[in-house]
């Protein structure tokens, strides 16, 4: 995979990881309820769940592209519509959203279990990955290239939420983010809508 193409993949995966939602709420809750390492545990196990869905998506996309190009196109457009819906939802969220603490006392075992379950219990991740990875997967793509895609999605997701857990474990940071949540939501919304338009425009490969 060319470096420029991989950088595009990394940027898109980062955008997906950074979008507000239940995953951010999960890491936030376990960080505030159990401390830094509990939040990091939730982040790492969430990344395992994301990697599982990314792997399923990459395998499935290759088969659909090869055998059912029209179906693949319809799925891609549906995924793009989902990205746009996420963007509109973020724009309308205002100051509400996943930055509300709602902390309870938690353990690392709970964090690990919930990290995986939040990822696997969110089938919308499949739609998200279809929209994202459709830009990079081709029928003739090698196993190594597919592995790079999956590992990139896992590492960026895990790395982002580990960073969130480390940063939010400092009590001064969360109030600062809460005061600016509306700007975070607006920026994320605009970028997600732009990403949806890029998906509709056609593949990057």
Describe the structure.
The chain has 205 residues and is an all-alpha fold. It has one domain (3-200). The chain is 80% helix and 0% strand. It is built from 9 helices and no strands. The protein has helices at 3-18, 22-34, 36-67, 69-93, 108-120, 124-133, 143-168, 173-179, 181-201. α1 (3-18) crosses α7 (143-168), α3 packs antiparallel against α4 (69-93) and α3 (36-67) packs across α6 (124-133). The longest helix is centred in the N-terminal third of the chain and has 32 residues, at 36-67. The protein is globular and about 50 Å long. The termini are close together. The mean pLDDT is 76. It is a multi-pass membrane protein. It is found in: Cell membrane. Its main location: membrane. GO terms for molecular function: amino acid transmembrane transporter activity. This is Homoserine/homoserine lactone efflux protein.
What's the SSE blueprint?
Elements: H1 3-18, H2 22-34, H3 36-67, H4 69-93, H5 108-120, H6 124-133, H7 143-168, H8 173-179, H9 181-201
Supply the number of helical segments. 9
SSE string: HHHHHHHHH
Fraction in helix: over 70%
Let me know the largest β-sheet.
Answer: none
Any low-confidence stretches, pLDDT <50, length ≥5?
none
Shape: globular
Q: What is the percentage of strand-forming residues? A: under 5%
- Rounded mean pLDDT is 76
Q: Rg to the nearest angstrom?
A: 17 Å
GO molecular function: amino acid transmembrane transporter activity
Keywords: Cell membrane, Membrane, Transmembrane, Transmembrane helix
Membrane topology: Multi-pass membrane protein
Organism: Vreelandella titanicae
